[in-house]
Amino acid sequence: MIKVGEHLPDVTLYQYSGGEGGCPVGPQGFSVSERCKGRKVVIFALPGAFTPTCSERHVPGYLAQARELFNAGVDEILCVAVNDAFVMDAWGKTFPTQGLVQMISDGNCAFTDAMGLAQDSSARGMGRRSQRYALLVDDGVVRHLAVDAPGKFEASDAQSMLAVLQAQA
Description:
The structure is a single chain. The chain is α/β, with parallel strands linked by helices. It has helices at 32-36, 52-71, 85-92, 110-115, 158-168, and strands spanning 12-17, 25-31, 40-46, 76-81, 102-105, 118-120, 128-130, 133-138, 141-147. The chain has a single domain, classed as Glutaredoxin (3-Layer(aba) Sandwich). Helices cover 30% and strands 29% of the residues. Helix 2 (52-71) runs parallel beside helix 5 (158-168). The longest helix has 20 residues, at 52-71. The radius of gyration is 15 Å and the shape is globular. The protein starts with 11 loop residues before the first strand and ends with a helix.
């Protein structure tokens, strides 16, 4: 598992924009380490789009706290799940994300594997997924990592991340 003080792996993640008002463009890949270079980024990951805790508590919490996180110095908030970019985009449209939280695909589980944070959810028909966690990344370096125990939602929430940022101020 990645540790505080380590650099993010150089892995490609994907984001899709349905092309509102124009022609849709397919999923766009980007290097997560490049995207975080010279910036303070919160990355929170969850087992999957449209799942109960993720939809009812995790994403809504980050949306509710987004402005406070930005005021505390965060440049961007990324929500990552092992779903394809089309699913992440559709899921994001069910929330009033308004550009506050970027819905990011790790469809091949490459980032999750490189972070050492994959879990096998095959017994529940979900295949390989991400553990629920939150990272504070500063210039590509992990400054805080909170991983929830399986089936729990206690450490990776937005309020906890805001507390970490406020303690660092």
